[in-house]
């Protein structure tokens, strides 16, 4: 497909890298000449120097003939104007990143009146991800599928877990009726079977009913009590989206913000929230505000290193749940052994969403991707497919399907029913299926077959 991306920031770079890898033809529009040249040098793309909101620049980038136009510059108004212009010029599908809380209140109106196909707000999506994590206090990440009916939860097996050393067949349902979809052990990715042994430090990706997941993660421990209080450091957009959601779940909140104007505005807009004007990156301030007495500390300042230091302190004083916003991907490898729990990377959240949309459009006639998540630096993908006409997998017992190695069908959603499959389970037309795969670039349910089309 022919795709034009406006904006070469973090999101734009991830999109160029991942969409080129999937064999799409990418043209990048960028104002900064050095940045544009760097991107052209790193990836197999073409570039146009200029503002993505200008008609003449869009025509030079051949937007009238493109399949998808994606506006992800740092400025909301530029993205909106660029998206409207692209739609007017004939772009088939238009996506715009819009971050302002004011615009987020009228997303539906803007889409309908301006003709923008999809509007994505990274901070709003980040807030939703944080709230999903609040349901599973011990989880590192929580990925939703089937409109929230199904979750796949990442959990590190702790030293005091009674599950360590057991084979999966020995774990049984007494510890929670869950399915372990995948294990990451050091740098090894394991699609498990009954004889796989669980080890301390394993990253387990598990699915099941919420109550069963919580029971599994407890396994004789008391770590999964409900989150009742949260301390937020930084009063930016993510905090603004989080506060009403935390209140809705009856989670008592306090915000520490260093900027006086932002702190005053937050206090005025959220009168039931305690807002403290101070520097929350200082340990003495965290101590004064009794950080150790909160169930969760959420560090969402604009500086990655400060967020990391805040939550290293929080973890040290015994805070049960830490959420750390990190945008620099080079820091993520360092954090693997830092003892921090949930890592929040907003631009990765929306890049996953956009890749899912692109894959679905590329396969508009087949069993479309309904959800998509990339894990372990892209080595693992979790996907949800809608099983459509023309599939080669329905009405055949799973034990008889010749599927690729390194692949697991995690669950089947049939209407409101969630099915955790066994060998005699059959996929049916209209089902939603969730798969975990070590193969990249699946865009159709038939790709799970050994003779499917995805890259080996």
Would you mind describing this structure in some detail?
There is one protein chain. The chain is α/β, with parallel strands linked by helices and 456 residues long. It has four domains: 2-120, Rossmann fold (3-Layer(aba) Sandwich), CATH 3.40.50.720; 138-218, 2-Layer Sandwich (Alpha-Beta Plaits); 229-344, Rossmann fold, CATH 3.40.50.720; 349-448, Regulator of K+ conductance, C-terminal domain (Alpha-Beta Plaits). It is 32% helix and 25% strand. The protein is built from 15 helices and 22 strands. It has helices spanning 10-21, 33-42, 55-60, 76-89, 101-104, 107-114, 122-135, 168-171, 210-218, 237-248, 260-269, 283-288, 304-316, 329-335, 346-362, and strands spanning 2-6, 25-30, 46-49, 68-71, 93-97, 118-120, 141-145, 150-156, 179-185, 188-190, 203-207, 229-233, 252-257, 274-277, 296-299, 321-325, 342-344, 369-375, 380-386, 407-414, 417-419, 432-437. The strands form four sheets. Strands 3-2-1-4-5-6 form a six-stranded parallel β-sheet, with helices on both faces. Helix 1 packs parallel to helix 15, helix 7 (122-135) runs parallel beside helix 10 (237-248) and helix 7 crosses helix 15 (346-362). The longest helix is centred in the last third of the chain and has 17 residues, at 346-362. The model has no long low-confidence stretch (mean pLDDT 88).
> How many individual β-strands?
22
User: Which regions have little confidence, pLDDT < 50, spanning 5+ residues?
Assistant: none
Beta-strand share of residues: 15-25%
Question: What is the terminal separation in angstroms?
Answer: 21 Å
The name CATH uses for the topology of the largest domain is Rossmann fold
Shape: globular
